[in-house]
């Protein structure tokens, strides 16, 4: 019978002073980075926590020194929905956000595709015009635009002056999509054309499936803009409460309940919740689309 001899393990050498210093430095860096991350997370999270907890307080406890509700008043949210006009504001906001986003994406994709993949005289000039439109504040053209929509077409008191222009593209969406489409190799487009695909079919069958992250990023940007838009509804729809959106109606709600801060906070939570949920479920596509738009100019 063969006897197996066990070789004793050599004792581990104690760390040298240089190794101890490096380990201590790495530990301090880890603690510092994570401390900054936790502090930043608390900085951005605590205001939402405060708003949510205040929305569940009673009328007498709201904005007191207490941070935790004595009784969780979930009925505050029902009282907000029972406010006259609140459901109308929801419906108008959903209509404005979804229809505006769809029109912006549909109208911006062909322009971005042409600027990214077509070679034609004046392409750089067209791109410069798109960039210059991004630099133009909307307040500069609001007076002639209002006169056109209100006096010529008589559409004041509605959201159509905000929705119809989205059917003609958006400078920021065109530029963002163009930047993303330039990351798609031209070989895919050339191969599709060799197989007999025209420009429209190449866009629909080849380019769009590869551009989903960029399209998702543009759609989210536009949806967030429309959902939070206050300036536009104030200009065109302020005279008609039936056309108010949540962002503009919330100001009226706060004025009517300026002493009921728990109801104001509950209404604020209801306005913020859809945007937070949309970003939570679509953040992967959003981050990927925004990241890849800067890979190639």
TrEMBL record:
One of its GO terms (biological process) is transmembrane transport. Gene3D superfamilies: MetI-like. SUPFAM superfamilies: MetI-like. This is Multiple sugar transport system permease protein. The chain crosses the membrane at residues 30-53, 94-115, 127-147, 159-177, 210-227, 261-282. Keywords: Cell membrane, Membrane, Sugar transport, Transmembrane, Transmembrane helix, Transport. Residues 90-282 form the ABC transmembrane type-1 domain. The keyword Mitochondrion does not apply. InterPro entries: MetI-like, MetI-like_sf. GO terms for cellular component: plasma membrane.
